[in-house]
Amino acid sequence: MTATGSDACASVPSAPAASASASPAPAASASGRPSSAASTSRPPASPGPGPAAAGGDQIPLSRPAIGELEERLVLEVLRSGQLSLGPRLEQFERAFAARLGVAHASAVSSGTAGLHLALRATGVGEGDEVVTSPFSFVASANAILYERARPVFADIDPVTLNLDVDAARAAITERTAALLPVHVFGYPADLPALERLGLPIVEDACEALGAVHRDGVAVGARGHPAVFGFYPNKQLTTGEGGMVTTGDERIKRLIDSERNQGRAPDTGWLEHDRLGFNYRLSDVACALGIAQLQRLDELLGARARVAERYREALADIEGLTLPCPDSGGDRRSWFVFVVQLPRGADRDGAVRELSSRGVQCKPYLPAIHLLRFYRERFGHRPGELPVCEDVAARSVALPFFAGMSDGQVQRVARELRSVLGR
Q1: Each residue's pLDDT tens digit, 368-416
Q2: Which of 234, 252, 263, 380 is catalytic?
Q3: Which residue of 244, 310, 330, 387 is 20 to 30 Å from 269, comparing CA positions?
């Protein structure tokens, strides 16, 4: 998404925060064993500026879990003097590919950059159409426009919130060059069904590191180009950054070249044999990613425990729609915890009131086709994609991060119940 998903969708304090293990508690886009790195993480940072509720300090929307292992590996890179295109890049890529069980991985500067390069590598170009989800971080659609292709939006499933397969099938035309499904909020899109449509696929897995399809294949390991994002609110963070996984060595070579100004591995310093971009990920960021990857089971487990606490705390609020549970063998990796407010509730007013009480939250996500740019450029109007529009109008992202305590979850639930009058 995020771009999708999703590169910059939460307010994240800059100060280091508690690790996943800091919470005694048994989503954010689906995901724990204890680790020494977690036990030595710094204590929670002091809350940033903003209103404080009567019940305590401000609860942030998200907070990265950074510990001593991350600090040590980053410091090693800083002391090495080789801050980019050094050994940590390949080390991070190989470890990431091994974790997912995929042949190749290419680190890039953001999830958005990864989507752009993956679409180019798939052959999407000017005049083509790409069928995708309207319920996502805007980057998933923007990346299609970078290649002068057109995003064709198909409605979403009301339960999983992912691209509806029948709607996607109906949106295909003779100009359709690819499908770009988004694993929204970490829940696996129905890739087995989408694969049967017979088109190239680029997966926006930016919110879904750790998710697993019903057939046991990890999201991002089906062989299609799949893109992960590492913004600070993600399951794994490098600050800014992303990764493209693929089973195709040709795509790996192409992305590695185009992320580095079009330079091929066997060409000289000033020899560039194709158009490229500056989409590199620094060794500093890769060191952070290596440390986070070593702790990934712990971080995913902590997020899953926070999500379960939320389910228990919010279960009795009438009319509130919670994230769908895992079903049919699909397993979510918790990225955010997004609820849909009861119909008739003032969503934007509720967000403002919660914020005034020290509970950071955001409307999340938009109906992309109704954003001003997309309305003006393509003539989209309300009513085109009713499921997406209904979900987008009622959705709120609640505070969610690995180190969230039981007390914080209970306070969010209490304030939400009060604001809704339930």
Answers
A1: 999 999 999 999 999 999 999 999 999 999 999 999 999 999 999 999 9
A2: 234
A3: 244
Which two tokens mark 332? 């979510």
Where exactly are the structural domains of the chain?
1-34+45-422
- Which CATH architecture is the domain 1-34+45-422 placed in? 3-Layer(aba) Sandwich (3.40)
Tell whether the model's pLDDT for residue 51 goes beyond 50.
Answer: no
Give the span between the Cα atoms of 209 and 332, in whole angstroms: 9
Of 15-19, 167-171, 287-291, 340-344, give the lowest mean pLDDT range. 15-19
Please indicate whether residue 362 is annotated as part of the active site.
no
**Contact of 54 with 322, CB cutoff 8 Å:** no
User: How many residues are present in the chain?
Assistant: 422
| Best CA proximity match to 326, nearest among 182, 185, 206 | 185
Task: Read off the DSSP letter of residue 109.
Answer: S
Helices 249-258 and 111-122 pack at an angle, to 10 degrees, of 120
How far apart CA 355 and CA 359 sit, in angstroms, is 5
